[in-house]
Write a structure and sequence with these properties.
The complex is a heterodimer of chains A (about 110) and B (about 120). With about 110 residues, chain A is an all-beta fold. Helix content of chain A is about 0%, strand content about 50%. Classes of the chains: A mainly beta (about 110), B mainly beta (about 120).
């Protein structure tokens, strides 16, 4: 049990739609990262937030965006969904002074 | 850019035996972290063990230990007394070690090794 939760567990969307995924972490975990894990692959870094600002981004287009809130929760928004966006989306949080990141159980997104 | 390579897509081991999973990485940085994560079918990514590059001593956590060879850029995971609950995908991951505690959360993962435990 990592103390990191994600919702929803599963989601089915149609190509072109928009989706919002949510992550909630432990108190004091003020950094959050989001990852996309395609089937049979390792997770790929999307972006990271610290103190409610994006301060690092992987090789993902602008239609992937996020928010971080003062209550240690965060969102990943994906616009104009494409079939290739079908994946497991993981969030990971870290507290100041800790080297480890703790992952949530993920949201499985299917785009049809 | 850093890369992480896991050359063993699948491994199997007899219950109670020892197995070693391989990982190599490429970086020009001198200070960084290396991790092994376990991902069972439940999908939850669970931290198994962590190694700081500046530490020469290999990390150990109960039945899990690493062989960290900094010059060779190698970071293998040894699982002793394998148990059925060890069956999972294992990912090796790299993270830069910034001077401050903030920023640069990016983990670079390998493609994973699927470990099967034979009863």
């Amino acid at each position: 049990e990592t103390g990191v939760t994600q919702s929803p567990t599963h989601l089915i969307k149609t190509r072109g739609q928009q989706v919002t995924l949510r992550c909630s972490s432990q108190s004091g975990h003020n950094t959050v990262s989001w990852y996309q894990q395609a089937l049979g692959q390792g997770p790929q870094f999307i972006f990271q937030y610290y103190r409610e600002e994006e301060n690092g981004r992987g090789n993902f287009p602008p239609r992937f965006s996020g928010l971080q809130f003062p209550n240690y929760s965060s969102e990943l928004n994906v616009n104009a969904l494409e079939l290739d966006d079908s994946a497991l989306y993981l969030c990971a949080t870290r507290g100041v002074g800790s080297a480890e990141q703790y992952f949530g159980p993920g949201t499985r997104l299917t785009v049809t | 850019a850093q890369t992480v390579t896991q050359s063993q897509p699948e491994m199997s081991v007899q219950e109670a035996e020892t197995v070693t999973l391989s990982c190599t990485y490429d970086t020009s940085e001198s200070d960084y972290y290396l991790f092994w994560y376990k991902q069972p079918p439940s999908r939850q990514m669970i931290l198994v063990i962590r190694q700081e590059a500046y530490k020469q001593q290999n990390a150990t956590e109960n039945r899990f230990s690493v062989n960290f060879q900094k010059a060779a850029k190698s970071f293998s995971l040894k699982i002793s007394d394998s148990q059925l609950g060890d069956a999972a995908m294992y990912f090796c991951a790299y993270r830069s070690s910034p001077l401050s505690n903030f920023g640069n959360e990016k983990l670079t993962f390998g493609t994973g090794t699927r470990l099967t435990i034979i009863p």
